[in-house]
Amino acid sequence: MKKRDFYGQMLLQEEDKRSCGDESTADLYRAVRNHFICFSGGKDLCLKDVTPALVEAFLKWLREKGLRVNTVNSYMSNLRAMYNRARRVCREKMGESPFAGIHLKREETRKRAVPVEVIKEIAALDLKSEPEKQLAIDLALFSFMACGIPFVDIVHLTGENLVENGTVLQYHRQKTGAFIQMEVTSGIQMLIDRYKNEERRYLFPVLSEDMTHEQYKACLATENRYLKEISVMLDLPETLTTYSFRHAWASEAYRLHVAIGVISQALGHTSEKTTRLYLQKFDVSEIAKANRQVSEAIGSCLRVG
User: Residue 139 and residue 136: Cα distance in Å, rounded?
Assistant: First the structure.
C-alpha cells in the first residue's frame, strides 16, 4: 500500500478503531469508505486528489442518494476526520483544508418517544406462544423501567451489575463509560427473574460469551424487527425501536417535572458540561425516586410468570 493512498489510510484507521474496541466508529469509518469508493468508481485516490471540488461533489452525491441530513453530516464530518489524520500520518504539508468551504447544518431529529399509554399496552401483551418476540418486548420494557438503559448495555448486564443484595443496578455505559446506578424496582426484578439462569453469564439470553460485534448487530436488528412487528400489531403511527423506550423514559420524566440534571445523570449523558456541574448533587435515592415516578405504572401491568 502506498503511504499516500487515501483508501488504504482509511482502511488502516478503521482497523485501528476496531483493534481499540471502538466498533461503532469502525463501522462508521467503513461505511464512509465504501460510499467514497462507490462515488469515485473505485479509482485510485491519493491525498492530493482530495480537492474542494471532489469533496463538494461527494457531498452532492450523498444528498442525491436521499440520505437523511444528519446521516450526510455524519459521513462528511468523519471523512474530514479521516482525511486530517491521514495527512498527519503522511506528513503532508497542511495547507487549506478541502473541507474549508463545507458548512453542515444539523437537522433537529424527530422525537422518538412513545406515550406511556402505549407502553402499558405493550406491557400487557401475552406472547408466551412467541418467546423470541416476548423477549424483545421484555428487553424494551426493561429499558423503560431502568431509566432508559440502552439495548447494548442491557444485553451486557451480568449478576455483577446487581449490588447491595440485588437492590441496586449499576453499570458503565458502553458508549461513554458513564457510571450509572439505580434502584431495582419490582418491575425490573420481575423481568430479571423471568430470565434468570445460573448457568448463563448474562442476565438476558441474547449474547453468547464469544459473540462478535457483527453478531451483536444482528441481535440488535432482530430486536428492532420484532418491535416493528409490535408497532404493526398495535397499529401505531410510528415504528418502535430500541431508542423509543429510552426517549420515552426521558420524556415522561420531564413531563413529571423531574429535574433535568437527574434525567441527564440517569441517562448517562456526559457531554453536557453545564448539567454535569449539578450531577454531583444527586445520588442513587434521587434516581430511584425519579424512576419510580416514571415506571411504576408499567411494572404493575406486567404479567406474572
Answer: 5
